[in-house]
Amino acid sequence: xxxxxxxxxxxxxxxxxxxxxxxxxxxxxxxxxxxxxxxxxxxxxxxxxxxxxxxxxxxxxxxxxxxxxxxxxxxxxxxxxxxxxxxxxxxxxxxxxxxxxxxxxxxxxxxxxxxxxxxxxxxxxxxxxxxxxxxxxxxxxxxxxxxxxxxxxxxxxxxxxxxxxxxxxxxxxxxxxxxxxxxxxxxxxxxxxxxxxxxxxxxxxxxxxxxxxxxxxxxxxxxxxxxxxxxxxxxxxxxxxxxxxxxxxxxxxxxxxxxxxxxxxxxxxxxxxxx
Length: 275
Description:
Blueprint: E1 2-6, E2 14-15, E3 18-19, H1 21-37, E4 42-45, H2 56-75, E5 79-83, H3 90-103, E6 119-122, E7 126-131, E8 137-143, H4 148-151, H5 162-183, E9 190-196, E10 198-199, H6 203-208, E11 217-218, E12 229-233, E13 240-242, E14 245-250, E15 269-272
Helix pairs in contact: 1-2
């Protein structure tokens, strides 16, 4: 299976009062060209499809851009898998996912690969099995950005600080991931983990000293070694690879989102999960 890993689109982002839509659309069109040129089976968007604070007309325009640019890929049997990030509105993401499931109903009790040629959105932790044209299955463990609505139950004791909240979310994120990996996934099928999270050990973490008071942070040693690939979003720097683990990568954002990224050469990651 050939996968194109991308993340952090931030559609309809603004730089002060300047709309970034024209620049982001050009990047999406460039990515669509890669999909055909490289014969990609599945495109993964590892969080932050949209930006916070969007008005409905802006959201409608962003969805229209996605439809226009990537519909040919879907019509040819390609599949798009996207998870929600910290900038994605949870209610909007759930609404879109429910509408997609209503338009193309899928029996949740059915086993085996899901149909290709459609967009799958994950606003909550889940597992999605897909097959390539040769019949090889790959299971995608989808772990959206950890927020209270996505990972905490209503009976959780209230937290008194951001640090306590993030520590609790960190623990629940790890528990959810381990439960899925230990009890849900099929051990004989190749596995790809997709998440939107900050990992200690990256260059960004070292340079900016991100702590639990700033974000939910996991340790590199907590990432299971047996996964075939780990597709991360959240860090915007291109091609960020964790130490000594070339199969664990951040794709980076698709466009320079602020002045701090003005010298970045943005990229996507092409991954082959072979037999």
